[in-house]
Structure formats: C-alpha cells, structure tokens
Amino acid sequence: MRRVPRDPEPGLVIESWGATDVGMTRRLNEDVFLVDENLGVYLVADGMGGHAAGEVASRLAAEEIIRNLSEPAAVDKETWPSHWNMARSATANRVVDAILAGHERVTRAVRRDSDLRGMGTTVVVAMHPANSRTLVICHVGDSRAYRLRKGRFELLTDDHSWVHEQVAAGFLSEEAARAHPLKNVVTQALGGSGDPRVDILETELGEGDLYLLCSDGLNSMLSDEEIVEVLGAGESLEGMASALIAAANERGGHDNISVVLLRPQAAAGN
Prior knowledge:
Oligomer: single chain
Strand content: 25-35%
Strand order of the largest sheet: 1-10-9-6-7
Number of helices: 7
Structural class: alpha+beta
Mean pLDDT: 91
Number of domains: 1
Shape: globular
Largest sheet: 5 strands, antiparallel
C-alpha cells in the first residue's frame, strides 16, 4: 500500500502588543521595545549606563537589529555564510548576526564619544518566519522570554547575571535573588569589551500559546505566580500589558518596565 504523505500543518500568524513605562523611581526610560508584525520581529532592550547613555545604547542596538532583519535573506543551503552554524535554522543565524551587529553599533558609538563609555544594553528578540509554526528567541543579558501554554508558565531564557549564576549554583534562592543588591549586575551585554554570548531557542508555536518578552523591571517586581495571574485573566493583549505594568508599579516600580506579548493563532481561512 502506498503511503500518502501528510500535509504539513498550516502556519500561524501572531497577534502582538507592546508597552513600556518609566516606572516609579527612574527619571529616564532606558528601555526600548519594538513590534513589527510584517517582519515577524519582536524585541525588548534594557539600556544601562546612566546619564542617558543607557537610553542611547538600547535605541542604537534596537535600530541596528531591526535594520539587519529588514534586509532580504538572499541565502539558501548552498550559499550560507561560512560563519553560520549549520545546526541552526537560517532565521536563528540571522537573528544572532543582527544582535552582534547591534553590539558593534553600540561599541562604535562608545569609541566615538567618551561620554558614552560604560553604556550597554540587554536584549531579547523573537522572530517568527512567515507562514511557519516556529518562533526563534535569542537573548543577551537578563531581559526575559516566558511562555504560557495550557496553564503551564515557563521561563524560556536563562539570565546572564551574577545572581542567576548564584541561584544555579545553589547559593541563592529565587526569592533572595529578587531582592539581592547585585540583582542588576549582568554578565553579558551588548556594548561590552568582547563579543557577547547569544543564547538561542527555536521552539514550535501552538494555538493558544501566549509569549511574554520583558525587561527585568517586570520580573524583579512580580513573582511568576503574579505574572501568570494577569496573563490568565483572559483580557486583550493591550489589557494584559497595561495590567502587568500597573502591578509592577504598585509594587514599587523600581525600574523601567517593558513588555511585549505574542499570541499565535490560525490565519484567516485555515
């Protein structure tokens, strides 16, 4: 009997929403978020450095990342750049290249202007190839990606931070890490002296999933249980984003707060 090949599942489209807030104690908002549904690119960057330099770093990095990912991907399996990792998808390699280009943009700015010395930024980027069921998530620093799937809330990224390393080694609890005086010390960032380590996750989307990208101004104020309570309330993406920011501010809003929410769904007609 001839086996009839199974038709691949139709791709999904993503509904999205992003928001940012200066918080209750900071004078400047050094966070940046980007939502581009046409490109399928979603980003949160959290600048650092003070004297507006953090704001400069996050903006420059975000601009460079989106510029790189806006360029046509004129590659196939026979013409991949030699530095690409063949174990990853073309999309994952493109996002890594874009993040490293963002890092170079920030470091060039520092070399040109000594007043910007010490600035840097974290970043988390998600990219959804058109007509696919794949989401590529890459990050540097402690900006995070979460997924809520069928009631299970999962952190998809590992913070590049001193306190996370202490938690992973068993020296600090999650609760102690949230209040630790060194909680904002990152071990990887765009704009540092060496190339940052970009962590990569390629995951399959499911209808009903909900993805959250955020700066640490959210998760440093709210526990996972408090975040998922908002995400499970069944509001619109805009309503959930507003509620998350309001809850973080009610807890003190000690940092800038940025959130991007992604909800995969079937395309019209599927």
